[in-house]
Amino acid sequence: MEAEARRGPGTPGPELDGSTPGPDPAGPSGIDSPTAPPTARPVRPYTVLHLTVDGSLAGLNAAAASLLTPTRAQALAAGSDAGESVCSFGSEGGSSAAGGEGGVWTVVGRLVLRPDVAVFFWVTLLMGIGNGFIAYLFLFLSDLGAHGTLLGLCLSANCAAEIPVFFFSGKILERVGVLPAFHLSMAAFLLRLTCYALLPLAPTPWLVLGIELLQGATFALGWTAGCVYVKRTAPRHARSTTQSVFSGLYTGIGAGVGALLAGGLYGPMGGAGVFGLGAGMLAVGWGAALCVLWWLRHTRTAHSSAYVRLEAELAPPRGLASP
């Protein structure tokens, strides 16, 4: 077996010509001779293209899978509580009759067209785009001369930050409120991308471990708050479908769009420029979302009234409100 491994392709073995194999020109250890040209490292454009295509396709596949997954709407459509919802879904009357009007996607479409819910999904998309940019962190750290050990510790820091946030998520949302926690996660995304952009100014790339602890806020807190928001906003028979839209925007379409943008601009702009651009894009998009919410809070329309009631329902109890 060892002799076969050392023989080159097409070289007859001892079982064919009765001779023993000659000395291996590569040496007994199988290492190339000094005269052999060294193996070239893959060029960076291929690396960026690979990350872009792989991340984008994975994100879009996740979005399609989540949006096409069969829901439990068919099982709940005939239930007496099909139209049950915590918030007012239609007029200001309080109870929603949307459960029996059209299919599940019709109900979800009406829900998404409500301004405050559209803002929620818009911010969700921005978070997904931020995740797409963060996918290029390891490439950026390699450009800064980081060792592979640091890259592995970054993942460890991510998990270490997520676990306590998920574990205490109920108490955090009760104390802070669902919508404030969701927007706090968006603020953490801006801080994280900005810190990445400034990382070349740091004395050592190892400082990135402190930045990675923001994963608890950018993912664990945002994901938990988003799931609770969907549960309390969507009618019961459309909750799973609405959840799939949330998941598809966050981990699918948003991440795919972010990966495409970051991958296409990484070459000409560099890692610091790409992360700075990502932070700027998220800041502009989030600022627009906050302006819409401010308008809803200070106008007298059916949509604004529904948003104000929902905001009150998702706020922490008065005794637990932060000062």
Automatic annotation (TrEMBL):
Residues 1-42 are annotated as: Disordered. Residues 107-275 form the Major facilitator superfamily associated domain. The keyword Transit peptide does not apply. It is a multi-pass membrane protein. The chain crosses the membrane at residues 119-141, 147-169, 181-199, 205-230, 242-266, 272-296. It comes from the Eukaryota. Keywords: Membrane, Transmembrane, Transmembrane helix. SUPFAM superfamilies: MFS general substrate transporter. GO terms for cellular component: membrane. Its main location: membrane. Pfam families: MFS_1_like. It is found in: Membrane. Belongs to the major facilitator superfamily. MFSD6 family. This is Major facilitator superfamily domain-containing protein 6. It comes from Auxenochlorella protothecoides (Green microalga).
